[in-house]
């Protein structure tokens, strides 16, 4: 059995200081340094670190570079085939998914922009089906249903693809003048935002007929109708993940770090300490004294903690503009509780559900549902 012998609360703010200059810390990547007073424990002890409080204003957009990219391939009126044209929905917060100011219309306008960039074609207009709710609390099936209209537009075939990853950093599909794909993000959650089909196929070097279709497209003389398969959503980020890079005591599914993997729920060592809900206004969590999230540290001395905030695929949080997290309003404050824990203390009875010591089965402990806390023990 293990017992807590000492505890410290560590209060941290990443807000830029008037005197700190640009610094090296950022909202999602920062160091907590103990250089003047390092944390130390004995050979029979270890550190247990938990997050007890976190708060930040959500000064980043819900639609951003992690979920706004789709690829368009088509044949135009002059029989020119254009492959893998990036369609990028403007990064911002949208009031809803439908209506003239919703994500659906923004997606339609982004497609029109991509066609104009690749072929010089102008004159399209877009309309979004009003059955999609215009606000979060609206009613409707939330399925993407937009129509692009232009008299005799000339397109004879079109495919919109939402690959979870592009497959390579340079596209060979650059004939016809479309933009070469060099996107370092490597994978994108646009399929989840727009309700399209996720395609794990590498779309690099494919012909138009080989391109995976994430949406249903119906082409008529004057219209192009685009329909989704699944409900749309305003955001693809429900939580931020607080990580301490020096740690690795927990387990996580590999897709929480690498969204390109096909191994899905296979487990690996994890440095995640806590997950924090993302709301419309802020990112906030407050836990009781004994946080449900923690990580054990093998090191006997701690000089610094290298902390990161990531999304659900291990990606950094997207800034709205350059230097927002070093000179702007993207920062956080949080509290860590650091316990010093002594190993191999023999208890009179019982145990904790999360301690790594073996469980005991005394009648008193069973009657109390094995819920005694580790700090309730004494030698």
How would you characterize the overall build of this protein?
This protein has 379 residues and is mainly β. It has 3 domains: 134 residues; 163 residues, no CATH class; 26 residues, no CATH class. 8% of the residues lie in helices and 32% in strands. The strands form 6 sheets. Strands 1, 4, 16, 17 and 20 form a 5-stranded antiparallel β-sheet that branches. The chain is elongated, with a radius of gyration of 26 Å. The protein starts with a strand and ends in a 12-residue tail after the last helix. The C terminus is likely disordered.
Write the layout of secondary structure elements.
Blueprint: E1 3-13, E2 29-33, E3 39-40, E4 45-57, E5 69-75, E6 81-88, H1 103-119, E7 125-128, E8 143-149, E9 157-161, H2 190-194, E10 216-219, E11 223-231, E12 239-244, E13 250-253, E14 267-270, E15 272-277, E16 282-286, E17 295-297, E18 301-302, E19 304-310, H3 324-327, E20 333-342, H4 363-367
Antiparallel strand pairs: 1-20, 2-19, 3-18, 4-16, 4-17, 4-20, 5-6, 5-9, 7-8, 8-11, 10-11, 12-15, 12-19, 13-14
């Amino acid at each position: 059995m293990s017992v807590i012998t000492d505890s410290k609360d560590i209060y941290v703010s990443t807000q830029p200081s008037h005197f700190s200059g640009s610094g090296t810390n950022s909202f999602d990547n920062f160091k907590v340094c103990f250089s003047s007073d390092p944390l130390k424990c004995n050979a029979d002890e270890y550190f247990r670190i938990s997050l007890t409080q976190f708060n930040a204003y959500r000064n980043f957009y819900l639609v951003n570079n992690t979920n706004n990219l789709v690829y368009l391939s088509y044949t135009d009126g002059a029989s020119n085939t254009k492959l893998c044209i990036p369609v990028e929905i403007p990064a911002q917060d949208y009031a809803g998914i439908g209506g003239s100011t919703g994500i659906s219309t923004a997606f339609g306008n982004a497609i029109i922009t991509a066609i104009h960039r690749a072929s010089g074609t102008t004159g399209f207009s877009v309309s979004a089906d009003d059955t999609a709710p215009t606000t979060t609390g609206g009613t409707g099936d939330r399925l993407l249903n937009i129509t692009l209209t232009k008299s005799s537009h000339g397109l004879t075939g079109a495919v919109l693809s939402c690959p979870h990853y592009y497959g390579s950093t340079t596209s060979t599909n650059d004939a016809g003048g479309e933009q070469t794909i060099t996107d370092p993000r490597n994978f994108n959650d646009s399929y989840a935002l727009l309700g399209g089909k996720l395609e794990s196929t590498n779309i690099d070097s494919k012909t138009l007929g080989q391109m995976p279709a994430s949406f249903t497209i119906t082409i008529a003389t004057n219209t192009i109708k685009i329909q989704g398969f699944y409900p749309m959503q305003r955001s693809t980020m429900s939580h931020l993940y607080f990580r301490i890079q020096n740690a690795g005591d927990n387990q996580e599914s590999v897709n929480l770090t690498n969204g390109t993997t096909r191994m899905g729920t296979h487990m690996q060592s994890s440095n995640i300490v806590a997950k924090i809900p993302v709301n419309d206004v802020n990112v906030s969590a407050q836990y009781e004294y004994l946080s449900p999230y923690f990580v054990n540290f093998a090191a006997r001395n701690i000089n610094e903690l290298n902390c990161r905030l990531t999304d659900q695929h291990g990606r950094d949080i997207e800034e709205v503009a350059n230097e927002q997290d070093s000179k702007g309003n993207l920062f956080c404050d949080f509290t860590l509780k650091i316990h010093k824990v002594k190993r191999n203390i023999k208890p009179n009875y019982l145990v904790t559900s999360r301690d790594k010591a073996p469980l005991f089965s005394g009648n008193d402990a069973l009657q109390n549902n094995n819920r005694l806390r580790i700090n309730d023990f004494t030698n």
